[in-house]
Amino acid sequence: MFGCLVAGRLVQAAPQQVAEDKFVFDLPEYENINHVVVFMLGTIPFPDGMGGSVYFCYPDQNGMAVWQLLGFVTNEKPSAIFKISGLKSGKGSQHPFGAMNLPQTPTVAQIGISVELLENLAQQTPVASAAVSSVDSFTEFTQKMLDNFYNFASSFAVTQAQMTPNPSEAFIPANVVLKWYENFQRRLTQNPLFWKT
């Protein structure tokens, strides 16, 4: 029903079933993994009203299992990419794997999938740093550049009372820069490649 993929490694398509509604994949040498993809194979859908919460588990310095919620897969969203590189030193969260004694070794982490009601999935909050940005790097750069320009230009803003007359300088009202900033941001949101036309 599920698959797991780490770049540069073979696809895992046979998770270990540890309970009727719980599955795990082992991730050897997890310290070298930045991202993991969890997906449905397309052979068996979730029953109506069900989905799968996806957890990352790694052993802490004492060898105890630390579980962190990454996100979800459902029939409507059958695959997801999760960033796990920043999670290896975070805090654990509540998880449905607590009563199970899953073997932990220092170099092996696990991806756990728990089949649950969709309404329960909607109430859970994944670790924020596990989400992979859906914004491409160009759009992200452009947004950062816009923010930087606006903040830079705004730092020179003065009131009319503070202005000293200087005939050789041109002044641009701050609201003009703000209007351009908001207009550019709106156009970028509608079509990141609008500048090519």
TrEMBL record:
Any one Gene Ontology MF annotation carried by this entry is: nuclear import signal receptor activity
On whether Iron-sulfur is a keyword of this UniProt record, the answer is: no
Print the keywords alphabetically.
Cytoplasm, Nucleus, Protein transport, Transport
Describe, as the record does, how this protein assembles with itself and its partners: Forms an asymmetric homodimer; required for binding and nuclear import of HSP70 proteins. Interacts with ATP-bound HSP70 proteins.
Q: Which residues form the Hikeshi-like C-terminal domain?
A: 136-196
Q: Name one GO cellular component term.
A: cytosol
Q: Which family does it belong to?
A: Belongs to the OPI10 family.
Does the entry feature the keyword Cytoplasm, yes or no?
Answer: yes
Q: What is its main location?
A: cytoplasm
Q: What InterPro entries does its record include?
A: Hikeshi-like_C, Hikeshi-like_N, OPI10
A biological-process GO annotation: cellular response to heat
PANTHER family (alphabetical): HIKESHI FAMILY MEMBER, PROTEIN HIKESHI
Q: What is this protein called?
A: Protein Hikeshi
Domain Hikeshi-like N-terminal residue range list: 6-130
Compartments where found: Cytoplasm; Cytoplasm, Cytosol; Nucleus
Task: List the taxonomic lineage.
Answer: Eukaryota, Metazoa, Chordata, Craniata, Vertebrata
* Biological role stated in the UniProt entry: Acts as a specific nuclear import carrier for HSP70 proteins following heat-shock stress: acts by mediating the nucleoporin-dependent translocation of ATP-bound HSP70 proteins into the nucleus. HSP70 proteins import is required to protect cells from heat shock damages. Does not translocate ADP-bound HSP70 proteins into the nucleus.
